[in-house]
Amino acid sequence: MVKTATLTIQRWGNSLAVRIPSGVARSAHFEVGLEVEVMTDEAGVTKLARFDPAKHGGEAMATGRIGAETGREMKDLHPMLVLSPKLFNERTGIVIGLPMTTAEFNDTNPFAIKFQGPKNVTSYVLAHQPKSFDWRARAAKAHPWKRVSDDLFAAACEQLNQIISICD
Predict the structure, then answer these.
(1) Is the model's pTM score more than 0.70?
(2) Residue 54 half-sphere exposure toward CB, CA atoms < 13 A
(3) What is each CA distance from 87 to 83, 84, 93, 104, in whole angstroms?
(4) Is residue 49 within 8 Å of residue 162, measured between CB atoms?
(5) Which CATH number fits domain 80-164: 3.40.640.10, 2.40.170.20, 2.30.30.110, 3.40.50.300?
(6) With bands split at pLDDT 50, 70 and 90, how would you rate the model's confidence at 43?
(7) What is the bridge-based pairing of β-strands 27-29 and 122-126?
């Protein structure tokens, strides 16, 4: 059965986010030839489930000025979900992670993992904006939360992997 649906495509930094209405098949083909899988979570929210970078990724087009945020890239002070192991962080002085925010417009961002913070504040981990920085040079400190739940950490890692497909 073929269904026709209106897809909302939003620009998120240098990426496009596709909002797909519920009821659309798990595999959708767009006119530009991009194939993605979508999924519906328990709350009925349809999100991007998988993007095949073997077909659409890996181009050597990622040159640009690093450190000068522009457009919808995150600026200023934000907490970060650190993905890199402590030993790596200590030896290199670099942390690799995903920024976190409370900006409500991320509620429609299919790459944002929504969660409730300790004070019941709705927050988002942005899986589509991995960052690295020199934590010593920037005098970074541990966030008062110290840790996120194992489930949130796993969801963030899975979402990032679906975008960049490092692990099978």
Answers:
(1) no
(2) 5
(3) 12, 8, 10, 34
(4) yes
(5) 2.30.30.110
(6) low
(7) unpaired
